[in-house]
Amino acid sequence: MIYSLAPMEGITGHAFRRVHAECFGALDRYYTPFLAPPRVGSSFGGKAFKEIDPANNEGLNVIPQLLTKNAEEFVWATKLLADMGYREVNLNLGCPSGTVVSKGKGSGFLRNLDELEVFLRDVCERSPIPVSVKTRLGLEDDAEYERILDLYRSLPLAELIVHPRVQKDRYTGSPRQGRYGDTLARAPFPVAYNGDIFVPEDASALCAAYPATRHVMLGRGLLANPALVRMLAGGVPATASELKQFHDKLFHAYVDEIGGNAVFRMKEWWFYAKCALADPMAVHRAVRKVRKINEYEVAVEKVFNTQSLAAVARFSG
Ligand SMILES: Cc1cc2nc3c(=O)[nH]c(=O)nc-3n(C[C@H](O)[C@H](O)[C@H](O)COP(=O)(O)O)c2cc1C
């Protein structure tokens, strides 16, 4: 089975990938949070460059993800990525955010299938590296997916990662796994599943229902339980000292990268990671109002000294 880390803007960036791999072993693949391609003729700069800088991703199998509806910029970006040594690029057709959708990008691109078809045919032909897609089922209603899947099936995609929700679901309700099953049965290219795999039993149930499953992408489940992939392979849950060591390394990596703003990055991580501890609400209260590094260190010390581990580290939103 292939296990990959989901792209999560502001969370699963290069520091997280590196520290997680160091503490819990590398996953098979990592997708970068979405990157906007640079203008044709320009390079990736600033934060986007750091994300794909080979020096920040050494030893990890990283697939950059692009968010755009501009074919020229997409193809230009794939040339830059190919020159940096990347062997695949992923297109984001799932982002549900209102500002992205209103510009016709992310899941908003699924509104205009004629335009999407022209875009995908063009970029699949001209990109020097294979193109994979991460998709939702549509915007309003999963019946939209019939036509969307027909379109994908006519293209030479490297892989299709299906998060079987529609845009208006955001992250609520249950993923429509049946739509993933249809894709698996009908697609001429490899298919991956993503959505609500929070404990090993979720993955077992998916594989029992769809035995041809070969790639599962993990997001919130792995943030709430950093040992999730180890457990999926039959290993043990994270110990308290492993969790603390992971926390400390992650915090220091963020401090090195962004100084005092590391506190805010860690608070986003705690939104998920609090589920690894017995009383998630107490963790939330402890870190909620903290702003400064020294306050943060005191709050977290208290969390680790007073909280035991949850019986089951399971994300709950
Ligand atoms: C805070 C946040 C940021 C996300 N950023 C991205 C992104 O940059 N690109 C993307 O394709 N999906 C993004 N997603 C969606 C995740 O990759 C994934 O599809 C979603 O969390 C469902 O999987 P899960 O149930 O395993 O978490 C994001 C989700 C969240 C909650």
UniProtKB/TrEMBL annotation:
Q: Which Pfam families match?
A: Dus (PF01207)
Tell me its EC number(s), please.
1.3.1.-
**Record keywords:** Flavoprotein, FMN, NADP, Nucleotide-binding, Oxidoreductase, tRNA processing
> What PROSITE patterns does the entry give?
UPF0034
Species the sequence originates in = Collinsella stercoris DSM 13279
Q: Which GO terms describe its molecular function?
A: flavin adenine dinucleotide binding; RNA binding; tRNA dihydrouridine synthase activity
Q: What does this protein do?
A: Catalyzes the synthesis of 5,6-dihydrouridine (D), a modified base found in the D-loop of most tRNAs, via the reduction of the C5-C6 double bond in target uridines.
In this chain, FMN is annotated as bound at Q65, K134, H163, G219, R220
Q: Which residues form the DUS-like FMN-binding domain?
A: 5-230
Listed name of the protein:
tRNA-dihydrouridine synthase
Q: Give the active-site positions.
A: C95
Q: Which InterPro entries match?
A: Aldolase_TIM, DUS-like_FMN-bd, DUS_fam, tRNA_hU_synthase_CS
Q: Which cofactor does it need?
A: FMN
- Highest taxon above the source species: Bacteria
Family indicated by similarity: Belongs to the dus family.
